[in-house]
Amino acid sequence: xxLQWIDDFLALCQTRNFTRAAxxxxxxQSAYSRRVQRLEEWLGAxxxxxxxxxxxxTPAGEEFLTRAYRLRExxxxxxxxxxxxxxxxxxxxxxxxxxxxxxxxxxxxxIESKLENYSLxxxxxxxxxxxxxRKHADIALIPHFGDEDAMxxxxxxxxxxxxxxxxxxxxxxxxxxxxxxxxxxxxxVYTPGTTYGMQIAAMLDRHRIHIQESPVCESASAEALxxxxxxxxxxxxxxxxxxxxxxxxxxAVPSFFDIPYNILxxxxxxxxxxx
Length: 275
What we know:
Strand content: 15-25%
Order of helices and strands: HHHEEHEHHEHEEEEEHEEHEEE
Radius of gyration: 21 Å
Largest sheet: 7 strands, mixed
CATH topology of the largest domain: D-Maltodextrin-Binding Protein, domain 2
CATH architecture of the largest domain: 3-Layer(aba) Sandwich
Number of domains: 3
Helix content: 25-40%
Number of helices: 9
């Protein structure tokens, strides 16, 4: 299994066309097709119906899609964790957090907490939790949407709140709008398997709302989506904490479209044998 095979697979899932996927992956169609075949050979099953237009996913492809994003994120989390073992400090506090919190909330919290000589590792929410549970991290700051099972035995403190908001730029021509349980306009989404993506999908499902058109963009990064929102390319759910000082505005949608969450400070489980 190679990381580029996963990226190749995801590109074809997004484009449903071998020519466009090969172009997106900056390679020739023949070389791209060979790499997709190697992935299928490694997994032991065909992933795509090549005769259909657009290209369709087989049941094996649908199953692999549910895991591919997580596999990719786990690989990068592993790399970040290994790189973080090297430190300029003889002994340092190891802090894990997400990219959004690292770019916004964290600095003020560090000043308030008067922490010094720390190593900062940016990872996915799942990667932060895994690092805490394995005691590879001393503390972690993560957004939390109420999944209590994931927090079992961990030391938890609520240190902030935020929410995901569907926003668009004033210059956007087709901002997202709700009509007859259908969300119309140019909408950008988070990749399947991401925490934000699952929370938004669950909210839409609860209210039986469907995104009418194919998303104009899909990304795991809130910062990447926000940059495209600012350019007027589409509407997206963005953490409010990222919107400070921005000219983007909340779309004209019901209040239940806002998805609140807590910002938690997490520490590893206490040693039950201590003392």
